[in-house]
Amino acid sequence: MPESVNEPSRADAVRNRDRILQVAHEAFAESGATSLNAIAKRAGVGAGTLYRHFPTREDLILAVYRRDVLELSRSVSAALAGKAPLDAFRAWFRELAAYVRVKHGLGEALGTAAVRDVVNETYVPVTAAVATLLRACEEDGSFRPGLAAGDVLLLMGFLWRVAPDADGEARAARIMELAIDGLRP
After folding, report:
1. In this predicted model, what pLDDT tens digit does every residue of 153-175 receive, in sequence order?
2. Considering its fold, how many domains does the chain have in total?
3. Domain containing 83 — which CATH number?
């Protein structure tokens, strides 16, 4: 059935959804307490459009998290092309930590099936990205051989548990170097 003149095209709906996700990413980075109505306004869409795509705050946060983490997982090659492997490892994990903090903004919702589904969906691409970083660091002699990507991901989990302030960032940098020392040959 052809769309009516008043009905948005699928392309419009996709553009609106993508715009909402981008604006929500920026808004949540500024403040995890940003309202959905404020996000809709910044995205230039009505609240109804936002709620059609993301019926709850959790749905929007999870969609932003999923999009960001999958994009980050695909960025490893570019990171390695522009930096030494160990520098790419450090930068990539700092960025992953920033995205995971969005997920931690869900509070008690972390135990829901929807959150578990998104974490499970992103685990394979994330561990594949970590494996690529580990291979590059192993090849240049920064890390010892045989490190398991899942183990290193678990080890680096401290990054999203420190406070997102200057003290937390300094602490994360110190702990990262301790972890890296443990990965060296």
Report:
1. 999 988 888 887 899 889 999 99
2. 2
3. 1.10.357.10
**Which phi and psi (to 5°) does residue 130 adopt?**
-60, -40
- 19 contacts 60 by C-beta, under 8 angstroms: no
Whether residues 69 and 45 fall in one domain: no
Which residue intervals of the chain are DSSP H helices? 10-30, 36-43, 47-53, 57-74, 76-82, 85-104, 113-139, 149-155, 166-183
Residue 184 phi/psi, 5-degree rounding, is -70, 160
Q: How many Cβ atoms from other residues are within 10 Å of residue 41's Cβ?
A: 14
Q: What confidence tens digit (pLDDT) does each residue in 113-145 have?
A: 777 788 888 899 999 999 999 999 999 999 999
**Residue 106 pLDDT > 60:** no
Distance CA 7, CA 31 (A): 34
pTM for the full predicted model: 0.79
Q: Which candidate, 15, 131, 26, 22, places its Cα nearest to that of 73?
A: 131
- The pLDDT tens digits of the residues spanning 28-71 come to 878 778 899 999 999 999 999 999 999 998 889 889 888 988 99
Query: Are 111 and 95 within 8 A, CB to CB?
Result: no
Residue 92's domain comprises: 63-183
